[in-house]
Each structure stands twice: as structure tokens, then as C-alpha cells.
Amino acid sequence: MCFFLVTSFGLWKTVMIGGIVCTFYTSLGGMKAVIWTDVIMFVVIFGTTVMVIVTGVVKAGGVGHVWETNKEAGRLDLIQFPWDPTQRMTFLNLVIGGFMNSLPMWAVSQTAVQRFLAAKSIKDAQASIWMNLPFVSLLLFLIDYEGLVLYTFYNEAPNVPPNVTKSDQIIIHFVSEQFGHVPGYQGLFIACLWAGTLSTISSGLNAMIAVTLEDMVKPFRRWQANRNNTEVVEDDKSDTFKSKLLTCVYGAISIFLAFLAAEMGTLVSMANSVFGAAGGPLLAAFTQGMMWKRANSAGTLAGVIVGFIFGVWITFGAMLSGDDPDTFWLYKISFMWYATITWAISTIVSIIGSEVYRYFKPQEKEEPIDPSLLVTFLRPRDVYETVELAVVSNNRTNQSGGGNMESEGEDGDLKEYTVHKRSLAQTAENQC
User: Is the pLDDT of residue 135 over 70?
Assistant: First the structure.
């Protein structure tokens, strides 16, 4: 829709071209292509955002005028605490709800985990998170300031706010009307839009392919080999072909969903609603695994399913009901709270389900717990130290070329870690 407003290029053409290009380079380059294109696209997005703000401030009358206009309109009163959960944006739902919406995406989603695993070491993965924080914060600040600039510009005579169906389209009209005559300006802005789109789709495609291969195709291959009493044969060439085929399949599905998304709400509400419905239960599963020693797969799975169904229900209920004042009260809740609500529901159901499962299946109580998978403050101290030791040994192995250990000392470290971990796993279970 955005490209159509700027270029009068047909919506279906835009979706098809974008989907095909993204599917093509994802299938050829894999994870490496996704990461490097994300880096380049971030530079494009950041540079274009700064360009729009600078030129927009000049059109709006300067930085001081932008600040005073928004201050007089009460748009800078950020520290407010209304407790009404149906209010779209408040300080509380931006801080608490925004945190819960962002945590699944940046910490436990497949796209995030896949990037962490692609790093050379745990420290490199941690460093990437800390480096990401200031850049994302700065980009969000610039995007928010864009909104202040647009408000100032369109509240000054003789400027008339554009007749749009979605608030996302205001910035598109602003760039097209005010800077359409500047050579290359609209082209760079369109490149910015493409960058955000392709970056998101390529990351999702790569994550779905990895999940399908590792959690469905390969386990089925092992199950089939065990059933036929044959040896499991790993075929990298066949897996590569399957991954490229899956890229085309998921790319086609993404193109179809893109046509549906054009009929939904704004990008902010749609993204937070989807992440709330799916991210909250996913975060609850990881929370149970790291912080609840008595959790088990049956109870956690029940919690994730219940939370996801509830999230889908309120998400689509709110979308279909629109702004109807007489709609069901649950559909009026701000989309910023969806992840928090689904996380809480999934966590409660998971705890209850795990306890019920342990009651009806006593042997579950004797299943060993791997304390190295718990958060650090719940691990015995000696487990934490041996985990750090194993990480150092693994890093040395990677630096020496993977495969086998270069010395008996390092090999001994890992053996000590494995034996020590197993003995402490039973000790942790007995403590539960």
C-alpha cells in the first residue's frame, strides 16, 4: 500500500516482486545473506530516517517550533499513569507491555536464537545484544521525532492533513508532496521501505526453514531409521535442496499473507498484536524451563497452547470488532497488553499442568534436571563454574578448527563438565 501511494505502482506487483526477490536471495545465501543484508538495510533505514527528519524540521519551522507546538498540544506529557487497560497508549503499557512484546522477539524467538547460535561464542552473542540496544533505541527515538515533526507541519496553515485510511500513510504523503521534486529523494525513501520489509521477511523465512529441517525433517528421518532398524544417513546435499524448496514454499505463503495484511490495521497495532499472541506463550515456555524446576514438557505444552489460543482469540476479535463501543470488553484491551496477558495465562496453566502431570505420573519426579539450563541464580555454584569452564573449552575448540580437541587437558575439561553435570542433575532433582 505504501509503495502504491508513492509510485502509483500496483499493489499486487509490489507484493509479488518483493516476495520473489526476498525468497530468491534467502534461498541462495542462507543465514549469511540474511545477516549481511540486514546490516546494509539498517544503514539505509537509519540514513533515510535522519534525512526525512532534517528536511522535515526545515519545512516545519525549526527544532524549537516543533518542540513548542507539541508541548502546547500536550503531546510531550509522557509520564502519565492512567490505569485504564483499554487506552491505546499509556506510559505503563509502553514500558511494561512494550517490554513484554519486545522480549520474545529479541530473546527467545527463532530468528533471535538462530543469530545467537551463529555467533562464534557466547560472549560474541552477548556483545551483539548490547551493541544492538543503543542503535535500536536511537532509531526508535528518531521515528518518534518524525511523528512530532509531522504533527507540527500539518497543524500549521495552509498545510492540510492528508486524507488517509491508515496513520501509516501520513509519512508517505509528506515525502511525496514535499520532496517529490527532489531528484533521488523518493527513490531513497522507497529503498528505506523495501529495506524494512525485506529484512523482516528474510529473517522469518530463514528461521522457519531451520525449524522445519531440525525439528521435523531430521527427527522423522531418525524415527524412520529406528523403525526399519537401519543406520541414520545424513545427506547434506539433500538437506540443502530441501531447504531451498522450503524457502520457495514459505515465500509463496508470505506473499499470500502480505495481501491479507493490506486489509488489516496499522503496522504498529498489527505487529504488536501478532507478537503478543505468539510471543507471550513462547516466552512463558522459556520462563518455565529456566526458572521452574518442577516444570515438564506436558504442562508447558498445555500452557503454550492455551495461551496461544487465547491470544489469537482476542487479536482477531479486536480486529473484527473495530471501534464498536458495544463490543465485548476483552476486545477493547490495548494491543500493548497482549503479550503480558498471554504470558501470564501460559505460565499459570503450565505450572498447574506440570503439577497435575507429576501427580498422575510419579516417575516424572525422578527425571533428572540439568541445572546448567536454569538461570544462574538457581544453579548450584559449582555447576555455574563448570559451565563457564566448558564454554571456554568449546571456544578454544572452535578457534582451533572445530572437530576434535587439540590437547588432552581441554578434552579432560569437557569430560569433567559432562560427568559433573550429570551427578548434579540428580542432586537438583532430589532438592525438588
Answer: yes
Give the Cα-Cα-Cα angle 326, 332, 337 (nearest 5 degrees): 170
Average pLDDT over residues 204-213: 82
Query: Which grid coordinates belong to 347?
Result: 505460565
Mean pLDDT of the chain: 77
Predicted TM-score (pTM) of the model is 0.71
3-state secondary structure string across 369-412: CCHHHCCHHHCCHHHHHHHHHHHHHHHHHHHCCCCCCCCHHHHH
Q: How far apart are CA 401 and CA 398, in angstroms?
A: 5
Q: What is the C-alpha to C-alpha distance for residues 432 and 428, in angstroms, rounded to an integer?
A: 7
Give residue 266's Cα distance to chain centre. Answer: 18
Name the one residue in this structure whose C-alpha cell is 500539518: 154
Angle in degrees, 0-180, between the axes of helices 267-291 and 297-321, rounded to the nearest 10: 170
The three cell numbers of residue 9 are 505502482
**CA 122 to CA 117: how far, in whole Å?**
8
CA 260-263-264 angle, to 5 degrees, is: 95
Tell the burial category of 149 from Cβ atoms under 10 Å away from its Cβ (0-12, 13-18, 19+). buried
* Contacts by 218-227, CB closer than 8 A, 24 or more apart: none
- Is 424 in contact with 382 (CB distance < 8 Å)? yes
Rounded CA-CA distance 79/85 in Å is 16
Report residue 308 CA to chain centroid gap.
Answer: 16
Contact 287, 265 (CB under 8 A): no
